[in-house]
């Protein structure tokens, strides 16, 4: 398939999925847990209600939602929750198939497709996804620091051959490798069903390169200095898919709107405040032995979104590992939010 043909088909697919335009802000929703370690879908639903006024697109389960840690049953349960919520609320959904080996990706994806058929009653793959409000499956290259680009291409190509809409997720923090710009260009030219690309590496090699992206929608997942990354401000990305959208959705939405209006000074002011808070909380959670810093930082700040200024008096949130965030992290996060004047006046669980 030629690059031009692929880009035209991709554009048609994107317009079909998003007749009113593609959301520029996406959120990898947190997965919450009860005291016994089971998934707290009630809490997740209330949390989602706090985010949806500003965010219409979601990656579930994403890395921030423990997508790499969830077992098969948990993954399917979270996916079912996401689809039911997306259909009820009119949201757009990327479904994360976060597994480190291609065979496991295929197995999990098959389970998801069967789940979507059960939920929608539709056998056709693309129609089934559309009815479930799923715009793509999100997947990473197979894990391995010694993987060659030929190996990465072969593994991703095997999955792309399914013909289902796909989102490629660059996450070397887990996979220990990156898809090179030239590999991405070849994939985009051959597979019009590759419609999204998320980069959480912080390196931005593909977006910043001169390779032909073929109209793939590019979203940045790395945190910080948000304003300068959007194409409207001279950056390389169409939008964001950010962990911080779990707790700063209104501020991120205002930032994007400011960039769209050409008010770059306002956008940079918002970005500066958010970047300072996020970086400080990330530093707090770096030494923790469980979870990843995206999830742990998000849970620490979301704790105050849930309980407001009294969050310091509540037990820390449960992690997938069955332990809670340490009290010192909770206390210090509250201090950071207070100093930054970012402390919520009232929590969504109060």
Provide structural commentary.
There is one protein chain. The protein is of the alpha/beta class and 350 residues long. It has 13 helices and 8 strands. It has helices at residues 3-17, 41-51, 72-89, 102-120, 125-131, 149-160, 172-175, 181-190, 205-208, 249-260, 264-285, 293-307, 327-339, and strands at 25-27, 57-60, 92-96, 134-139, 166-170, 194-199, 217-220, 239-241. Strand 4, helix 6 (149-160) and strand 5 (166-170) form a beta-alpha-beta unit. The protein starts with a helix and ends in an 11-residue tail after the last helix.
Average pLDDT confidence is 96
Coarse structural class: alpha/beta
Percentage of residues in helical conformation: 40-55%
- Give the CA-CA distance, first to last residue: 55 Å
Enter the CATH topology name: TIM Barrel
* Unreliable residue runs: none
Q: Whole-number radius of gyration?
A: 19 Å
Q: Give the CATH superfamily.
A: Aldolase class I
Number of strands: 8
CATH class: Alpha Beta
Name the beta content range: 5-15%
Give the topology string: H per helix, E per strand: HEHEHEHHEHEHHEHEEHHHH
Please tell me the CATH architecture by its name: Alpha-Beta Barrel
Main β-sheet description: 8 strands, parallel, barrel
Number of domain units: 1
Shape: globular
Strand arrangement in the largest pleated sheet: 1-2-3-4-5-6-7-8
* DSSP summary: helix tally: 13
């Amino acid at each position: 398939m030629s690059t031009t043909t692929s880009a035209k088909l991709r554009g048609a697919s994107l317009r079909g999925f998003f007749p009113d335009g593609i959301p520029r802000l996406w959120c990898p929703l947190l997965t919450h847990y009860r005291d016994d370690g089971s998934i707290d879908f009630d809490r997740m639903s209330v949390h989602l209600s706090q985010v949806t006024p500003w965010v219409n697109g979601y990656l579930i389960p994403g890395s921030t939602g423990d997508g790499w840690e969830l077992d098969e049953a948990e993954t399917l349960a979270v996916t079912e929750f996401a689809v039911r919520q997306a259909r009820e609320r009119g949201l757009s959904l990327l479904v994360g198939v976060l597994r480190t080996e291609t065979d496991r990706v295929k197995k999990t994806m098959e389970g998801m497709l069967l789940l979507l058929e059960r939920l929608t009653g539709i056998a056709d793959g693309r129609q089934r996804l559309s009815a479930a409000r799923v715009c793509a499956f999100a997947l990473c290259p197979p894990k391995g620091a010694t993987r060659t680009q030929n190996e990465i291409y072969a593994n991703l190509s095997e999955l792309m051959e399914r013909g289902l809409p796909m989102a490629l997720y660059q996450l070397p923090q887990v996979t220990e490798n990156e898809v090179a710009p030239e590999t991405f260009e070849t994939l985009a030219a051959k597979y019009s069903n590759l419609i999204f690309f998320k980069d959480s590496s912080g390196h931005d090699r593909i977006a910043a390169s001169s390779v032909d992206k073929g109209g793939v929608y590019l979203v940045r997942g790395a945190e910080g200095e948000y304003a300068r990354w959007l194409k409207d401000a001279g950056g390389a990305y169409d939008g964001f898919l950010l962990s911080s959208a779990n707790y700063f959705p209104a501020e991120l939405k205002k930032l994007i709107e400011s960039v769209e209006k050409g008010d770059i000074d306002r956008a940079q002011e918002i970005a500066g405040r958010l970047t300072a808070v996020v970086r400080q909380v990330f530093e707090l959670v770096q030494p923790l032995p469980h979870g990843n810093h995206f999830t742990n930082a998000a849970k620490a700040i979301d704790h105050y979104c849930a309980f407001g200024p009294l969050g310091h008096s509540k037990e820390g949130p449960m992690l997938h590992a069955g332990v809670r965030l340490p009290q010192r992290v909770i206390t210090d996060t509250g201090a950071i939010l207070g100093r930054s004047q970012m402390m919520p006046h009232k929590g969504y669980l109060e």
